[in-house]
């Protein structure tokens, strides 16, 4: 069987330990090409670069086993450039991460890691975003490699339906304390912002965005519940953002009557 | 009846003609506070600023009818700062736009305009994003003001269910040729990227992202269909990205069996 072509990207930048761990797992499973940001691009959401130029630099040696490029743009730019300018074809799989920190629940919408996976999904490529609930640069990714391998093998084997990508979050636990893998829905949660207001040396006000995560969802079928209870959470994510249940109600509004 | 407090933002920047037109309509309907980016922030998606500082400048005169601030951050940052640092309470409505250009179908996911509306929705604020299918800086926003007024009045009157915001796109047509307002779903569409590869004066390759829009959806209930046929499209958008229909199928995978 031909080895699958696997595109690896992330949002923490090409030198982050998380992506190095992901590359290590993927290189056992397929032919790996890495195209990742040249600097951290966390919380970039689905941003793309349209008002400035993009650079792409090959950083691996000519005879290296894995081809690696860094890119000056966002995670979504990386996927677009990889498919169009490097691979010149759809890879068989795109994996993004391993993110240093959670992308569970509402974080999916802010996450550069997940936006790269979603972009791959839009382009018809099976895709998975992986995140470890540990913001430490030196987080222990060894503990979770077996779960990443297992999920990736299943995706290669079963494929994913068109328009669906996986958001995988892993608890910060030793491997033998992780209870298993749970299929979940996105928990209803939000960040309560707190701005840290400061003054520049010149006396001008400025702000740092900080916040407190609030899970408003008591369901036991959510990613937050799974992670709190020691499971790996897998949420199937799609990018049809239509609130289909609302269409009927909106059709009762008087939008087309003259006032 | 007390006038509603309306937060106005956008992604083209505070001086764009689109937001000026939106402010004009909203000032007839409520008390308006503007918090918008100090520079264009198109295609920023749901990006937030966590690795650098944010500035907020009051740009309206003390006795002006409308209070206006510009912000150094993204559209989502503007909403967060407005709610937390300026208004110190939830506004009754948040409107974003009028965007210079379409945010229909898959564009919802790249759009700074819509991400600002979605952020408001996450924070429990009824929200609408407005976009005109005209990329011209000097587009004629007069033609669409009556539709924006109508939709906004209906939202103020009916409210929106929690977790739903509206994505409104308006065709580039004279007012009397616009056929009406249609409730739609997001069309299945994508951008086929094309990179314009160039060389710097120093001989280094760089890229501009360009692309061609491809509507893959033949449905007559989509926003693309409505806009092509001369209607204003209204898509209810939510931010639960779970592909609920996929959960059952994923539960048949062998994720928890030993290899």
TrEMBL record, chains A, B:
Subcellular location as annotated: Cytoplasm
Domain Survival protein SurE-like phosphatase/nucleotidase: 6-192
Pfam families listed in its UniProt record: SurE
Matching SUPFAM superfamilies: SurE-like
Binding site for a divalent metal cation: 11-12, 42, 99
E.C. no: 3.1.3.5
GO molecular function: 5'-nucleotidase activity; metal ion binding; nucleotide binding
Protein name (record): 5'-nucleotidase SurE
Alphabetical keyword list: Cytoplasm, Hydrolase, Metal-binding, Nucleotide-binding
Catalytic activity: a ribonucleoside 5'-phosphate + H2O = a ribonucleoside + phosphate
Source domain of life: Bacteria
Gene Ontology CC annotations of this record: cytoplasm
Function in brief: Nucleotidase that shows phosphatase activity on nucleoside 5'-monophosphates.
